[in-house]
Amino acid sequence: MMPGEAQRRVGVLGPACDPFGQVLEDQPARAHDLFLPLISPSPDAAERSIPLDEILVLSQNEALAHLPALLQSATPVTLILRRNTLQQDHTQTEAALRMLATALKASPADHIQLCALTPEAAQYCETVTGLPVSAAPALRPVQRPETSLPLDRGQPQATFFLDTHQIRDVRRIKIDALSWGRLRRLARLHATDPNDQDLVDLCAYVSTYGPAVPALPRARRMLAVVPNGVGLGHITRMMALARALQSERETEVVFWCFSRAAEILQAAGYPIVLRQTAAHLRAHPPDWRDFETQEFALLLQTFKPDIVAYDGAMIDPFVFAALRMPGCGTCAFLWVRRGMLSPDADPLFMENEQFCDLILEPGDLAVAVDQGPTRLHQAHTRGFCQTYETQPVSLAVTLPAYSPREARKRMGLRRGIYCLISLGGAFGDWDALETALVAEAKRQKITLIWAQSPLAPPPRSQNALIRRLFPLSRYLPGIDGVVTAAGYNSFHELMLTYDKPVLFAPTNHIRMDDQVARASFAATQNWADVLQADTPEDITPKIRAFMQAVKSGTRFPQRPKQALEAAALNKRIDQMLQPYMGHASQEPET
Amino acid sequence: MSQTFAPPALLRRLTHDNKTMGPRLAQLEFQNLSQELEQPDLFDLALDFPTIPPEVPQTFMPNIALTPVAAHLPALNVTLGRTAWMEDPDDLPVVGIWIGDLDSTTLRPALKALLRKHYITPFARYVFLCETMRVIPFLGRYDFSYDYIGPASPLEAVKRLQIRYAMVQLRDLASGAALWKAQTPPVAEPVTGQD
To answer: What is the mean pLDDT, run by run of 10 residues, along chain A of 590 residues?
Structure first.
């Protein structure tokens, strides 16, 4: 749905993280509204071109701050009256309500409707103001969650018990980490301090439960966020996961993509919203984040995904900020986070677990040597998130490869022995290695093919044989050996689908995974050989041995075969979505 | 930390080096860019998926101009690109360049002509509005700003880019024609405290 086609535009005046604003989309009559944050109800020149169908003011305090503009507004206004909080006690709340009532009585405004969270709150507000106050429309029922979450706005974190796999786990979460649209689906919410009457009202308002819904009444929708990354790893992995999801059930996938190689996703049939990072633009990050938050929220409200997925370790806060905005909060968050990070990596990023429903860890064949924080450290704030470790994820497994003859024909290769070199262009200092490879290949009459990344500049040498192909895995049967870096995707693509000689040249960089450990593990399993930067004297003998293996046609049948199972993935994703399926229209339980 | 402030002499030297090396770096980058643009297959990425969909469904392109808060957001920086150098690129206006779905034989010379002028005398910071994604990796390599708009009319993107980047003009790469100009270009803030 495009904004402006059928969606009512509702301007929301109040804090973006107000719990009532976060459940507005669960009011059946507002399910398709487009909620737009307002800074002021009086439109300036730029805002006049954005006509609103309604202005919704989230508290009497906001209303008092903008009262003259609200009274003169030509747009219908719904004003939500709230009871006292810990910060604004009973006396102050009543004073504010009476002040508002006096102003409204002095300037009668038919376009302003008063509303409170519950019938009890409405009665209280009517008594105080002497004006008619209705109760807010009931929310769509959701499944009654088993978990109970005590909330106290005086405490920044909530502690609760979460039953996972028959184990009772103590969990912590920042109380404003998740939208209440998600929270009410994950836990029964109750206020621990009865003096915070507004919180008591909010908890009562969102506790509308109904029977479980077996399945979504339409195709699943996933909005996949792909960071820029160093190479093509994030794109390739998310594409593999999207294809696995689509192989079992109809799933619409849209990519919010920061990678300059987004054309690959588009060629595979996925719609793209292409973005630039703050670093790309050299923009002030908070300003850039404001743009990302607003536009990401617009996409959330129009595409209405069931899943927001993010692949990468560092999740920019704009994603979570948008998910907390009105109209954006009834989808599950899937964090695709691979292991094998450097042992020195700061584990602070793991605190983002509290924002997630599921952490999907793509399996790593070298997990036995994983010494990174995702293996050895546990986040302090884990919220409701659960962890699911899959078999290795590789796009190559899902794509049919060409026959050796066809692959060679398509690559324009003649007869002979060919070795593919794919070292990754970002961080390696490969000059010495390239020289050694070229010399040894020449000596053994092997032709080198240099794989060029779509992100890389054209090669310096005019005489080199270069191929820029994606996905490269389809052409591997026409190649007699591969020298490559040991990133997650290249490593698993080769180990799972290729049986000829492989020589790893791992690169370790702070932004990347522990490639040395991964490649060394493969060497210990006799799956491949590895060039270690700290033993330069071994490089030439190893290249020589590798080239001999290429020339003699050595095969490696012992390489593993286990890869991601689409059925198991879909089952786990459906489990994750189960709490969110209650948004189909139902009658509330009595 | 042994020293809180950098020595003024060091700062002066680095500033001097920057003024010297900046143009030289831009020159080398421009040489690389020119050589890249000589290659006929520069924008041809051989993407080979077994089941290529006949048409990729278009998705809603979120537009900040649809939100009331847009008027309150400060415009984002637009990069000058690595093939040009000047001391204060922020002073240059932001101009949108629309790159339609052009044939490589048209696209490469047009880009080269524009970026040559940009290298010799930078007179604007560019946001390239791209109908296709072919040119994105190339533009990204040289730190240019871009915006993928798909098959939508570039004029539909104007309001959004006016808000996002304070864009004042939009031109067609192929013809050089002005497609749009801001009615009231932003007035520079008066400089205070200087003669």
So the answer is: 67 93 95 92 66 94 94 93 91 95 89 96 96 96 93 93 85 96 96 95 95 74 89 90 94 95 91 95 96 96 95 94 95 95 90 96 95 92 95 93 95 94 66 86 93 72 78 94 93 96 84 87 96 86 95 94 93 93 47
Q: Which of A276, A395, A469 to mutate to test the interface with B (most CBs of B within 10 A)?
A: A276
The residue of chain B nearest to residue A469, with distances taken between CA atoms, is B46
Give contacts of B 17-36 with A, CB under 8 A.
Answer: 32, 35-36
Domain around B91: 75-181
Domain boundary among A169, A185, A210: A210
Residue B80 lies in a domain: yes
Query: Both A299 and A352 in a single domain?
Result: yes
- A368 and A230 both lie in a single domain: yes
Residues A241 and A356 occupy one common structural domain: yes
B188 near A CB under 8 A: no
Residue B195 covered by a domain? no
In a domain, B15, yes or no: no
Q: Which of B47, B72, B146 to probe by mutation at the A interface, max A CB count within 10 Å?
A: B47
The contacts of residue B95 (CB under 8 Å, 6+ apart) are: B124, B125, B126, B127, B167, B168, B169, B170, B171
User: Which domain covers residue A28, as residue numbers?
Assistant: 9-137
Q: Are residues A70 and A81 in the same domain?
A: yes
Is A250 contained in some domain? yes
Determine the residue of chain A that is closest to B74 in CA distance.
A287
Query: For B60-81, how does the pLDDT look when each residue is reduced to its tens digit (9 = 90+)?
Result: 889 999 899 998 899 999 999 9
Predicted confidence (pLDDT) per residue in B87-127, tens digit: 899 999 999 999 999 999 999 999 999 999 999 999 999 99
The answer to whether the CB atoms of A302 and B62 lie below 8 A apart is yes
Give residue B193's pLDDT.
39
In chain B, what residues touch A292 (CB-CB under 8 Å)?
Answer: none
A288 shares a domain with A276: yes
For residue A303, what is the nearest residue in chain B, using CA coordinates? B60
Distance CA(A505)–CA(A422), nearest Å, equals 9
Measured N-to-C along each axis, helices A488-497 and A515-524 cross at an angle, to the nearest 10 degrees, of 20
Statement to judge: residues A533 and A468 lie in one domain: yes
Query: DSSP letters along A478-523, please?
Result: G-SEEEE---HHHHHHHHHH--S-EEE-----TTSB-HHHHHHHHH
Burial B46-79 (b: 16+ CB within 10 A, else e): ebbbeeeeeebeebbbbbbbbbbbbbebebbbbb
Q: Report if residue A558 sits inside a domain.
A: no
Q: Chain B partners of A266 at a C-beta cutoff of 8 Å?
A: 56, 133
Judge: B67–A400 Cβ closer than 8 Å, yes or no: no
Taking the C-alpha atoms of residue B160 and residue A561, their distance in angstroms, rounded to an integer, is 49
Question: Which pLDDT score is estimated for B80?
Answer: 96
What pLDDT band is residue B188 in, cutting at 50, 70 and 90? Answer: very low
Residues 50-89 of B with CB under 8 A from A: 50-53, 56-74, 76-79
- For residues A289 and A260, membership in a common domain is answered with yes
If you write DSSP's letter for every residue of A189-235 in order, what string do you get?
EEES-TT-HHHHHHHHHH--EE----S-SS-EEEEEEE---SSSHHH
- Output the domain CATH number for residue B170: 3.40.1380
Q: Say yes or no: A406 and A546 in one domain.
A: yes
